[in-house]
């Protein structure tokens, strides 16, 4: 199934490897088109490097894996849009510009206040927090989240990750409704 729904993921969504991995599994379902840009990559990589003390070079493999998982995920050619965009934090203009460029329907972000409705609705955009986005995907095709979580958990072999650790990590990634849904579904 190929969807015409397109979302741009803000850099803060990619801060956690666990959430990133689950979102990529969901993207491979074809229920939505996942998009990001080189600037979004740069922003999450810088944040992870600064907050976790990981050299940016060590994050290159994760970046490459993301780009391989979603081959058409990279948005380019949006820079010219930035000059005419006004947001509370001007450093977020690149996210909005990428969303405009690729004709996205939504920006998935933890910081919805950084993309106020009056600034983005004129471009046909809305924001959505990751937790609500994930559950909306599940609502559109029941079982897709469980399949994605199973596939995602299977990746963690060295060292292995238990189901309890996986769920706990999702809670810590600020997607408690997703973690709760998976817990209640007894998907394991």
Explain what you see.
The protein is an alpha/beta fold and 188 residues long. The chain has two domains: 6-134, 5'-nuclease (Rossmann fold, 3-Layer(aba) Sandwich), CATH 3.40.50; 136-185, no CATH class. It is 49% helix and 9% strand. The chain has helices spanning 17-27, 38-52, 60-69, 93-101, 117-120, 130-140, 144-155, 163-172, 176-185; strands at residues 6-9, 33-37, 74-75, 106-108, 126-128. Helix 1 crosses helix 7. The longest helix has 15 residues, at 38-52. The protein is globular.
Q: What does the secondary structure layout of this molecule look like, with pairings?
A:
Layout lengths: L5 E4 L7 H11 L5 E5 H15 L7 H10 L4 E2 L17 H9 L4 E3 L8 H4 L5 E3 L1 H11 L3 H12 L7 H10 L3 H10 L3
Parallel strand pairs: 1-2, 1-4, 2-3, 4-5
């Amino acid at each position: 199934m190929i969807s015409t729904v397109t979302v741009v993921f803000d850099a803060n969504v990619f801060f956690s490897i666990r959430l990133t991995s689950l979102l990529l599994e969901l993207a491979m379902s074809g229920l939505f088109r996942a998009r990001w840009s080189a600037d979004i990559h740069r922003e999450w990589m810088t944040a992870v490097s600064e907050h976790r003390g990981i050299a940016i070079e060590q994050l290159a493999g994760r970046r490459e894996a993301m780009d391989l998982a979603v081959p058409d995920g990279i948005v380019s050619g949006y820079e010219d849009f930035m000059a005419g965009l006004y947001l509370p934090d001007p450093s977020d203009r690149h996210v909005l510009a990428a969303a405009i460029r690729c004709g996205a329907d939504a920006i998935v972000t933890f910081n919805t206040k950084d993309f106020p409705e009056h600034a983005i609705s004129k471009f046909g955009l809305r924001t959505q927090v990751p937790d609500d986005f994930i559950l909306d995907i599940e609502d559109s095709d029941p079982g897709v989240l469980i399949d994605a979580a199973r596939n995602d958990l299977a990746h963690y072999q060295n060292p292995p990750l238990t189901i309890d650790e996986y769920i706990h990590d999702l809670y810590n990634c600020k997607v408690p409704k997703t973690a709760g849904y998976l817990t209640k579904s007894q998907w394991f």
